[in-house]
Write the structure tokens for this entry.
Amino acid sequence: MTTLTLNDGCRIPKFGLGTWQTPDADAARIVAEAITIGYRHIDTASIYQNEEGVGRGIAASGVTRDRIFVTTKLWNSDQGYDSALRALDRSLARLKLAAVDLYLIHWPCPAQGRALESWRALIEARREGKVKSIGVSNFRAEDLERIIGETGVVPAVNQIELHPWLQQRALRELHARHGIVTESWSPLAQGGDLLNDATLSRVAAKHRKTAAQVVLRWHLQSGLVVFPKSVRPERLRENFDLFDFALDAADMAAIDKLDANKRTGPDPAVFA
């Protein structure tokens, strides 16, 4: 599995499994199946209400803990210094893990004004060894600049909505200047219309792949970390089958032209 080096020296697999909307009752089976296929990066969050199932799947996989990269996230209602530390402890207990590889503030929630306190809590959690790397999700440029300016600690990751219709180039350029790795959530724009795009269909036919595989390959070749979600074994395998082809410069340029600044999820400026 190809990895990237984070700004704290830890390494993160570029491809993984997303578990949003995966029921807890199904999570153990799906996570164990994904790890059997070859997935080594699992992304969950407290708000997904499936951390217990994710933890069971990791334990049942037969793969040693040090070979699996686990991410979870702090939910909005738990922001604040003390509450963030308590929330992390609850997540670790549900996952049955001594530490997670990456802990993220899920949303900046600017109206709450508690992201800086939460960031200080994550810094402390890393010092205590409960997390290896710390980062954020859905943070805008101004959110990033504030926590970096106040603490001097740069997030290892910013996980943002990113797909061919929403490529977030200006924010990615800021990430590059700070050494922040960009992770893509909703990498397929929730499927549907995007995967019926004529450009993607043409590129897919050229490589004898699906439109979804082409989009996921575009993420990887763009230097992004990507973790599509699926609950179906055949789709888990299809999503993982990305490493026997490469998009050429013309393919990449054609997909780059699809950017329309089109969100499928909430706006971080107002979501609380």
Remarks:
- The chain has a mean pLDDT of 97.
- The longest helix spans residues 81-95.
- Residues 1 and 54 are 20 Å apart (CA to CA).
